[in-house]
Amino acid sequence: MHDTTAGRGPTAMDLATLRDTDFTLLHGTADAYERLRGDFGRHLENWRDGVERRLTAADWTGPAADAAAPALRRATGGLTAARTELGQIGQALRTGADALVLAQSALRKALEDVRAAGIAVDEHGVVDPASASPADRHDSADEGARARTAEALATRIGTALTEADTVDRALATRLRHYTARARDGTGLDPHRALGDRLDLGLAPDNLLLGSVPADGASPVEVNAWWNALPADRQRWLIEEHPDLVGDRDGVPAAARDRANRILLPRLIAGYRPGGPSSDPYGELKLSGYLGIAERLRRTDGTDPPVLLLGVGGRGQGRGIISFGDPDTADDVTTLVGGLGTTLRRIGGGDADRAKAVYDAARRADPTRSTASIAWLGYDAPLTFPEAGDRARARGGVDAYRRFLDGQRVTHRGPPAHVTAQGHSFGSLLVGLAARGPVGIAADDVILVGSPGTDASHASEFSVGADHTYVGAAAWDHVSHLGWYARDPAGADFGARRFAVDGGSPDFTAHSSYWDDGPGDDHTSIDNIGRIVSGHGDRISPDDPR
What distance lies between CA 118 and its chain's CA centroid? Predict the structure, then answer.
């Protein structure tokens, strides 16, 4: 059972009230106040023309005139204040009505989706995923998917009720404020009326910003919030606050791409000469942003589409680029780079690797669609001493898990086949993320040039040993380091080792696994493509060390 009222505290807004109330009546009341304001405005002009200005033009002087002048000013000021207050009341009612209609629309859409999913919801907004008929449950291929659907729907219902309750309380507070001013006479003070700009969170934009999930919210919560927003509100957030959308797991890929393409030029401008000079990674970030922008410029209009799924300024910089749409692809793979992975590589070498994987997967199975992603959501080590610090990998585990969870949530159609790839130090991050009992939302794991994963056996990963694949070249010195527990290419680790080009003793072997040029040995990239496309049974195997 998913109780959508949990954590919201006492509320005067229940499901039936929000679902059934005709809020157009509030719009009618707002219209009435606007008409009254107009009538008062005409009365004010009549007063000014017929009394105040006429007496001023008469050159009236003397004691009586001296006594009348302040009285006239007070009367004019009172009428002006009354007109202002009437306008503010009408505006408050209209803004509140707009916000309540927005919440009502979100609730009604969520209830429609509840019924379409064959799930029950009671009058308190409690969703019961077990309410489907036995036949429906039998036909469901994934009870976990039903539970996730129920959780998302429950969150959408709860969000709509919470926002409506916030509006209701704020509007009531504002109206009580104006009532009190009318009773004590301060409503006729023109200075107080003109300066009375209470911000009680009633503006739809403020309400919308206030509804944005916290940074730590799960992708399920984020997706429920996003789906509950009308299309025009989604567009407004993308255009006006791209930083709140572009790197948020649970928001669909297309929306993230649009937001990040708006955000990228702003980041570039911020780090140009004269930007934040105190940032020790300022030049590194600017170089990365420019590289990503150039990659997007060169790939716009090409096939596959290139989506910018994340860009930001945390730490050494953040960037996520995808070849293909992960929300629609049959196969989705996300590569985590290791030592020396700067933001520049997301638009450069790591993007090249992602594209090579895309091409190899399509060669392996042209009947399936692919999305191949280069992911930099952590501060990768830039030097060998930094690579000895596991904390850098641990710092990216939650972000990587959340990113993969977000792919599952936003994907349309049958679930995608998901592969997590880690190279070099990035394999430590992937290995830490894949460890049980939490694990990662992936079907297969590929470890390439790995110095270790902090695991002693592949069975410790949530995908299991049979779905853990290891590529290690004979001349890849990094893969022989054994820094982080057992060598993944060794027989004792229990993973499936696939054949790669052995390389040469000049240290290039560590970086050549994705080489896909005309004169390259394609053994490694072709095997990676087979795994990513769901054909791990077709790899050319290699013996464990």
Answer: 28
Calculate ∠ Cα 164-166-172, nearest 5°: 100
CATH of domain 251-538: 3.40.50.1820
Please give the structure tokens belonging to residue 297.
């410029």
Cis peptide before 437 (omega within 30 of 0): yes
Q: What is the pLDDT at residue 323?
A: 98
pLDDT of residue 136: 47
Q: Tell me how crowded residue 316 is: count the other CB atoms within 10 A of its CB.
A: 19
Place of tokens 């993973």: 495
* Dihedral sign, Cα of residue 380, residue 384, residue 387, residue 392: negative
Distance between CA atoms of 492 and 494, rounded to whole angstroms?
6
Cα–Cα dist 320/511, whole Å: 20
Q: How far apart are CA 228 and CA 230, in angstroms?
A: 7
Neighbours of 366 (CB within 10 A): 9
CA 526 – CA 207 distance, rounded (Å): 51
- Residue 331 CB contacts under 8 Å (≥ 6 apart), including other chains: 361, 368, 369, 370, 371, 416, 417, 418, 419, 532, 533, 534
Burial of 12 (0-12, 13-18, 19+ CB in 10 A): exposed
Task: Write out the two tokens for 526.
Answer: 């072709």
pTM of the model: 0.71
**Which own/partner pairs from 266-273 qualify as long-range (CB within 8 Å, at least 24 positions apart)?**
266/242, 267/311, 267/312, 267/313, 268/293, 270/313
For the record, the structure tokens of 479 come out as: 């893969």
Low-confidence ranges of the chain (pLDDT < 50): 1-10, 133, 135-141, 193-195, 198-200
Position 112: which residue type? Answer: E
Please state, in angstroms and rounded to a whole number, the distance separating the CA atoms of residues 214 and 235: 20
Q: What is the pLDDT of residue 482?
A: 78
Instruction: Quote the tokens at residue 450.
Output: 């790995």
- Distance (Å, rounded) from C-alpha 23 to C-alpha 15? 14
| Cα separation, 95 vs 467, whole angstroms | 55
Q: What span, in angstroms and rounded, lies between the C-alpha atoms of 250 and 121?
A: 24
Q: Are 360 and 529 in contact (CB under 8 A)?
A: yes
Of 502, 508, 497, the closest CA to residue 541 belongs to: 497
pLDDT at 415: 95
What would the two tokens of residue 472 be?
């290690």
CA angle 378, 383, 387 (to 5 degrees): 60
AA letter at 331: D
* CATH 3.40.50.1820 domain span(s) along the chain: 251-538
pLDDT number for residue 63: 74
> Can you tell me the distance from the alpha carbon of 245 to that of 263, in angstroms, rounded to the nearest whole number?
10
